[in-house]
């Protein structure tokens, strides 16, 4: 058992020579046992990163290790749910879970998988093609959790669930992960759905890592400043500043005490993420490297 | 990660993978078994017609003599027509096994799985992609070998010592393919070509189309060049002569040399059936092996 779930070093992936790389020089480290949100705009490289971690793509640059090994060697210990939740449409729910048992003979926990299916009131004899998108997501998650993974990679897991099912499934997922110390990496562009459940953040933009680190540390490193237009923001790193009339609102990374007449507030996750998305040129902040050195 | 003390399930046992392949392709399996049963039943029934068909094709005389039946009576027997057309349909179907197999392998076996992402689903379970592909090829290959091979044996038995006038000569393209091991080799080549096409195109419909086209090309090419696969026999004689019954004529030339009429015939006697079968089977198995190797290399290159 290692204490690092995923470690990427200058990781890059290019699809075709002429196109912009989907991932470019990504370096980060995710400690084991975390619940990590991978956020970013469409096309930021979230799915590419997850596919690389799942051993489904070969990096064109750099390297990635998962649970201390190459992703392909960790196959048995990780689970991956792709964005479109691929399942065999002609199989029944039971047949799909049987497939999980047959393909993971050493790890399969039928009880755990069946519990998740049962919670959704799914008919075990129903064919996958007759299920709704949300029900299909539930079966895909049951298949992933039935494997008892040490690392769970979820690509936009909740995208087609109604709010109630999303809440329910997220709670199941988090309880299961907490019970077994599973590391969860989940990508999303809905930031609000992540705030209560994640303790680690990876913000991607344009194929690069913009923010990485424990959620609390990242939030603590930023201050939402309100003041009058023209107030000096001094030596602080300004992520984004906006003036409406005579009012100045800015997200800064303070390097010392704020000046007089300016008021500092702790920003929410959504404010930090949105500010970074709106200013693609803001310098990246990587707090996991320091942690790795300790 | 197995806790000490618990007995790990042997990783080398492919039972789970085999079951998975069988379960995901249940419809194709059922359909194949149905066709196998129908073809076997048809051949058994045709075999039961053999004597009647022979009677319907025998020499006759009008008016009937002691040795020969009357031509009206022989004409009244229709079993020979049924026998001939029935056999020709079954041998044609048997010699075309490659086409549905190739289309299915390209479309359903690999192409659709890559298109819909269920291949990725399998590759993120505990089996490696190479083992996944191996199972996907080995299970249908075993079933095709057993099924096609069995049907060829039934076909050979049903034809018995059939009159070539009724059942077709050994060198008729469909008869040649459906009465020897080459039928199995065609099916296996179709499977490998289809699997490769599915991995290359990664989409069901184009892969099925390409696999079908490649199979048609291969089938036509071999049919056209079958007589070149083994050196034919050449017989040169003064005057004219007749080739033995059931010889496949390759070339025939009458040319007077020094005023003496000389006939030069190149042909395959019936004894060339087996060498021709072996060479053609070998070529097809080589195609299948190359396509299979290509599929594995492609998979290994694409995945880490």
Automatic annotation (TrEMBL), chain A:
UniProt-listed InterPro entries: AAA+_ATPase, ABC_transporter-like_ATP-bd, ABC_transporter-like_CS, ABC_Transporter_VariousFunc, P-loop_NTPase
Domain ABC transporter: 6-231
Pfam families cross-referenced by the UniProt entry: ABC_tran (PF00005)
Source organism, top-level taxon: Bacteria
UniProtKB keywords: ATP-binding, Nucleotide-binding, Transport
Phosphoprotein listed as a keyword: no
UniProt name for this protein: ABC-2 type transport system ATP-binding protein
TrEMBL record, chain B:
Tagged with keyword Chloroplast: no
Keyword RNA-binding appears in the UniProt entry: no
Domain of life where this protein originates: Bacteria
Transmembrane segments: 28-46, 93-111, 132-158, 170-197, 204-222, 282-300
Keywords, ordered alphabetically: Membrane, Transmembrane, Transmembrane helix
The protein, known as: ABC transporter permease
Organism from which the protein derives: Streptomyces paradoxus
């Amino acid at each position: 058992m290692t204490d690092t779930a995923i470690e990427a070093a200058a990781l890059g992936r290019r699809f075709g020579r002429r196109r912009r790389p989907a991932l470019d020089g990504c370096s980060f480290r995710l400690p084991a046992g975390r619940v990590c949100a991978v956020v970013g705009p469409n096309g930021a490289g979230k799915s590419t990163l997850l596919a690389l971690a799942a051993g489904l793509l070969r990096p064109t640059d750099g390297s990635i290790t998962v649970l201390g090994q190459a992703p392909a060697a960790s196959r048995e210990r990780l689970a991956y749910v792709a964005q479109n939740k691929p399942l065999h449409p002609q199989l029944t729910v039971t047949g799909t879970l049987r497939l999980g048992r047959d393909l993971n003979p050493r790890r399969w926990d039928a009880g755990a998988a069946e519990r998740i299916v049962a919670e959704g009131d799914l008919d075990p004899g129903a064919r996958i093609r007759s299920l709704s998108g949300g029900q299909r997501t539930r079966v895909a998650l049951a298949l992933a959790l039935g494997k008892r993974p040490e690392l769970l990679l979820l690509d936009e897991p909740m995208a087609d669930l109604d709010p109630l099912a999303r809440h329910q499934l997220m709670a199941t997922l988090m309880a299961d992960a907490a019970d077994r110390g599973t590391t969860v990496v989940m990508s999303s562009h809905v930031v609000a759905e992540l705030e209560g459940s994640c303790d680690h953040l990876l913000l991607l933009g344009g194929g690069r890592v913009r923010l990485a680190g424990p959620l609390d540390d990242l939030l603590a490193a930023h201050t939402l400043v309100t003041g009058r237009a023209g107030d000096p923001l001094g030596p602080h790193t300004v992520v984004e500043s906006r003036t409406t009339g005579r009012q100045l609102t800015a997200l800064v990374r303070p390097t010392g005490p704020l000046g007089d007449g300016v008021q500092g507030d702790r920003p929410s996750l959504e404010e930090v993420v949105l500010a970074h998305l709106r200013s693609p040129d803001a310098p990246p902040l990587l707090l996991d490297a320091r942690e790795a050195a300790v | 990660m197995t806790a000490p003390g618990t007995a790990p399930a042997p990783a080398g046992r492919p039972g789970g993978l085999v079951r998975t392949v069988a379960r995901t392709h249940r419809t194709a399996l059922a359909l194949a078994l149905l066709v196998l049963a129908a073809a076997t039943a048809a051949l058994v029934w045709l075999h039961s017609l053999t004597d009647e068909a022979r009677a319907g094709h025998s020499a006759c005389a009008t008016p009937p003599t002691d040795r020969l039946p009357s031509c009206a009576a022989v004409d009244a027997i229709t079993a020979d027509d049924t026998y001939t057309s029935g056999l020709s349909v079954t041998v044609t179907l048997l010699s075309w096994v490659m086409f549905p197999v190739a289309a299915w392998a390209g479309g359903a076996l690999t192409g659709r799985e890559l298109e819909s992402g269920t291949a990725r689903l399998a590759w993120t379970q505990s089996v490696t992609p190479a083992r996944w592909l191996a199972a996907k090829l080995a299970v249908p290959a075993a079933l095709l070998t057993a099924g096609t091979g069995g049907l060829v044996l039934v076909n050979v038995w049903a034809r018995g010592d059939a009159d070539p006038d009724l059942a077709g000569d050994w060198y008729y393209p469909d008869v040649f393919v459906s009465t020897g091991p080459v039928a199995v080799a065609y099916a296996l080549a179709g499977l490998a070509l289809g699997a490769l096409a599915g991995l290359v195109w990664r989409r069901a419909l184009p892969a099925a189309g390409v696999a079908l086209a490649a199979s048609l090309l291969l089938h036509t090419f071999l049919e056209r060049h079958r007589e070149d696969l083994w050196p034919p026999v050449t017989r040169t004689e003064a005057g004219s002569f007749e080739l033995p019954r059931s010889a496949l004529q390759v070339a025939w030339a009458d040319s007077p040399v020094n005023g003496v009429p000389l006939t030069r015939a190149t042909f395959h006697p019936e004894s060339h059936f087996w060498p021709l079968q072996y060479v053609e089977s070998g070529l097809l198995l080589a195609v299948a092996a190359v396509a299979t190797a290509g599929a594995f290399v492609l998979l290994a290159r694409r995945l880490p």
